[in-house]
Specification:
With about 120 residues, the protein is mainly alpha-helical. The protein has one domain. It is built from five helices and two strands. The chain has a two-stranded antiparallel sheet with strand order 1-2. It is globular.
Amino acid sequence: MASLSVNDVRDVINITAADIPDAIILKMIKRAEVTLELELGREIDYQDCSDAEKEFITILAAIYAICYLTGGYAVGLSFKVGDQNISVLQNIPPLDVLRAELDRILERLREIYVRSV
C-alpha cells in the first residue's frame, strides 16, 4: 500500500514549502481524499491506499494547489484557475494535462471498483 506526503503534491507542480505551507497542502490532500471517496463510494485513507488512489489524490491536490497559487478556486472536480503569477507557476505542468490524467485515473478506478463489487 502507498502513503501520500505533502512533498508528493509539491513535486507534481515543482513548488516548495515556501510557496504553500504543509498545513495547507494537508488540507488539500484531505479534500482530494474525500472527493475520491465520494466518486467511488468507498472509504479511502491517503496514508494507506493503492498506488492508483495515491496518484489521483496527489494530482487533485496539486490542481487545488495551482488554484491556491493563482487565486482560482476548486470544488470537488471543478476548478477555475485565477490570475497566474508567472514567477511561481513557470514550472507547473499544463492544467489540461493534469486534468486529463486525473480523469483517466478516475475512470480506471471506477472500473476496478465496479468489478470488485
